[in-house]
């Protein structure tokens, strides 16, 4: 399966997202930077199987990109061989970090 990782560390808005997406996935020339276009290319123009994985999302980004997450979850339900996951950035609290250093 072809896995594409989108790192949200430097993504602040949809413009940043689409720029990184275009770097990672060959999208058709007519692709418009919007969720309808994304849904359309997933459902008919991208080579499957495909897994898209978002990494290092912040809690704030979950809210900012809620419609994007919903669009990709819907595509996962309706497009054969398309899967999608996302992972939040992880922070160690100071106590855990100190314990790790002592060991």
UniProtKB/TrEMBL annotation:
One Pfam family of this chain: Barstar
UniProt feature coiled coil, ranges: none
Residues covered by the Barstar (barnase inhibitor) domain: 1-87
Similarity comment: family membership: Belongs to the barstar family.
Protein name as it appears in the record: Barnase inhibitor
């Amino acid at each position: 399966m072809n896995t594409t990782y989108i790192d949200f560390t430097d993504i602040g808005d949809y413009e940043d997202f689409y720029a990184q997406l275009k770097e990672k996935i060959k999208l058709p020339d007519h692709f418009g930077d919007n969720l309808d276009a994304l849904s359309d290319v997933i459902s008919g123009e991208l080579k499957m199987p495909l897994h898209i994985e978002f990494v290092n999302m912040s809690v704030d980004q979950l809210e900012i990109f809620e419609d994007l997450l919903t669009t990709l979850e819907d595509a996962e339900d309706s497009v054969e061989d398309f899967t999608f996951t996302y992972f939040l950035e992880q922070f160690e609290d100071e106590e855990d970090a100190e314990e790790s250093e002592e060991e």
